[in-house]
Amino acid sequence: MDDAAPPRPADLVATMAFDPMIGILDIDAHLATLKDRAEALGYAFDRHDVRNDLQAATFRLRGAAQVRLLLSPSGAIAIEVTPE
């Protein structure tokens, strides 16, 4: 009998480009795709909260950057910002 825990579901990842004059490029499309993927897998997803967190993470950026969002099955998110 194998008592190993089942594998943990993988986080969903969205990688987005940030332009200081525009904001996150195609943010609505990225969030729609993430929402669809989250729903299909039964992951918690709050579009409004995610959008607010992305806004907060990029608010002070003055140059181009890459934004990487990770969404866990519980709905917890992590945001990584890497200047270009």
Topology:
Blueprint: E1 12-19, E2 23-24, H1 27-41, H2 47-58, E3 65-71, E4 77-83
Antiparallel strand pairs: 1-2, 1-3, 3-4
Shape descriptor reads: elongated
| SSE string, helices as H and strands as E | EEHHEE
What is the average per-residue confidence, as pLDDT, rounded to a whole number?
A: 94
How would you characterize the largest beta sheet? 4 strands, antiparallel
Q: Tell me the CATH architecture.
A: 2-Layer Sandwich
CATH class annotation: Alpha Beta
Structural class: alpha+beta
Oligomer: single chain
- The rounded Rg comes to 15 Å
Tally of discrete structural domains = 1
Instruction: List low-pLDDT spans.
Output: none
Task: Assign the CATH superfamily.
Answer: Aminotransferase class 4, branched-chain amino acid transferase, N-terminal domain
Number of strand segments? 4
Question: CATH topology, which one?
Answer: D-amino Acid Aminotransferase, Chain A, domain 1
Q: CA-to-CA gap between the ends?
A: 50 Å
Helix count? 2
Summarize the structure in words:
This protein has one domain (12-83): D-amino Acid Aminotransferase, Chain A, domain 1 (2-Layer Sandwich), CATH 3.30.470. 32% of the residues lie in helices and 29% in strands. It contains two helices and four strands, in the order E-E-H-H-E-E. It has a four-stranded antiparallel β-sheet. A hairpin with a 5-residue loop joins strand 3 and strand 4. It is elongated and about 50 Å long.
